[in-house]
Each structure stands twice: as C-alpha cells, then as structure tokens.
Design goal:
Elements: H1 5-9, H2 13-25, H3 30-37, H4 41-53
Helix pairs in contact: 2-4, 3-4
C-alpha cells in the first residue's frame, strides 16, 4: 500500500504512539507496521525515536 501525506498527517496522537511502541518492541517488522497503518517506514522510525525519547 502506498502511504499518502493525508493519512500520515491525520493520524491521532494515540495511533502515532502505538506505532512507535510497536516499532520499539521489534516484535513486528517495521515494514508490516507501516503497511498496516498506511504510512511510510520513515514515519514509523520517526515515531520509534519519539517513544525512545519519552
């Protein structure tokens, strides 16, 4: 699935947080997280970094 800026921009904060937590746990591949949420891997890695800083 191709991510669109509109989808990424409209993600609620709670979903962004969940994406970051999933990415940080490494229990699910980053590509799968991105595909399931219709966002880029770059966004997933970014959210992972945000969770790590919190």
């Amino acid at each position: 699935m191709v991510s669109t800026p509109e989808i990424a921009a409209s993600l609620p904060p709670q979903i962004r947080k969940e994406i970051g937590i999933q990415a940080q746990s490494r229990s699910i591949p980053i590509t799968r997280i991105a595909r399931e949420n219709q966002v880029s891997r770059k966004l997933v890695y970014g959210q992972e970094g945000m969770v790590a800083q919190a």
